[in-house]
Amino acid sequence: MNPPSYGLAGVLGWPVAHSRSPKIHSYWISKYGLLGAYVQLPVAPGQLGLALPGLAALGFRGCNITLPHKVDALHLVDALDANAARIGAINTIVVQGDGSLKGFNNDGFGYIQSLLDAKPDWRADAGPVAVLGAGGAARAVVLSLADRGAREIRLLNRTPEKAQALANEFGAPVRALPWSQRHAALADVAMLVNTTSQGMQGQPALDLDLAALPLHALVSDVIYVPMQTPLLAAARQRGNATVNGLGMLLNQARPAFEAWFGVMPEITAELRRAIEAGL
Ligand code: ATR
């Protein structure tokens, strides 16, 4: 029998020093007794085309892709997972047996799993969903909700053309509504999702009046710094269940780890605490 080979993976972006991924993957490498490492790969804008072809030669099993390379990397891999093609960005590369690169996007998987972890009986078709924002995070969230059977997704974005373009691209059940209607659009929803940057550390709170939001609606924010955004705090205060973005971060890492190291890893309470402690 061959000795187990050393598994190498990393997070490729610019900057990457703030990334939580090394902590998450290193925890799993150690927990499952594997031989390997997950490292930072700081690659400046403009260097991506030189860096990616080197992955296989350096013995990497793959890497995560983060800002600002998520869209550019999609055009540089040899093959694309269908879901990544629909989202239009990749967050994971897997080096195939023949040395070619395949791109994946696990953000939608991570998002849905985070909802199910928090609320095992959660269903996408429980009622209308209001999604705020139409950037990269919104694309993964909206597509994954539609795939899970959401029947009506009200998409509201400060720049209306971007919400409309997304609705045109994805078709039913996505419907773009004017940003000015974001307060009223909450009436009768089963879920509200914030994918904008508002409420993130260093950013102002999202300007949203929750008065029309039903008390049974689930409120989700893809932000995890801080873990409780002003939106989630206000929602909790009035009695709505909430889910922050930490579960999405942790869950999107699982299929990538499995592809590189052959084990579908678990999100333990210990891992969650370790990541929370560093936020
Ligand atoms: P990400 O990839 O994290 O989604 P992004 O693509 O830069 O990041 O998208 C940021 C989202 O936050 C966009 O929907 C953006 O709205 P615009 O399309 O109008 O730019 C939204 N956003 C940023 N600042 C905002 C603000 N002050 N009020 C409302 N929405 C804002």
How far is the N terminus from the C terminus? Answer: 43 Å
Helix/sheet category? alpha/beta
Give the rounded overall mean pLDDT.
Answer: 97
**Count the strands?**
12
CATH architecture of the largest domain: 3-Layer(aba) Sandwich
CATH topology of the largest domain: Rossmann fold
Reading off the top of the CATH hierarchy, the class of the largest domain is best stated as Alpha Beta
For the largest beta-sheet, the strand count, sense and barrel status come to: 6 strands, mixed
The Cα radius of gyration reads 19 Å
Shape, per Cα inertia axes = globular
In spatial order, strands of the major sheet run 2-1-3-5-6-4
Count, helices: 10
Number of domains: 2
State the order of secondary-structure elements, H for helix, E for strand: EHEHHEEHEEHEHEHEEEHEHH
CATH superfamily membership of the largest domain: NAD(P)-binding Rossmann-like Domain
Which ligands does the model contain, each kind named once? 2'-monophosphoadenosine-5'-diphosphate
Helix content: 25-40%
Spans where pLDDT lies below 50 across 5 or more residues:
none
Secondary structure blueprint with pairings:
Elements: E1 7-13, H1 21-31, E2 36-42, H2 48-51, H3 54-57, E3 60-65, E4 79-80, H4 82-87, E5 92-95, E6 101-104, H5 107-118, E7 129-132, H6 136-147, E8 153-156, H7 160-170, E9 174-177, E10 191-194, E11 218-221, H8 230-238, E12 241-243, H9 246-261, H10 269-277
Parallel strand pairs: 1-2, 1-3, 4-6, 7-8, 7-10, 8-9, 10-11, 11-12
Antiparallel strand pairs: 3-5, 5-6
The structure holds 2'-monophosphoadenosine-5'-diphosphate (ATR).
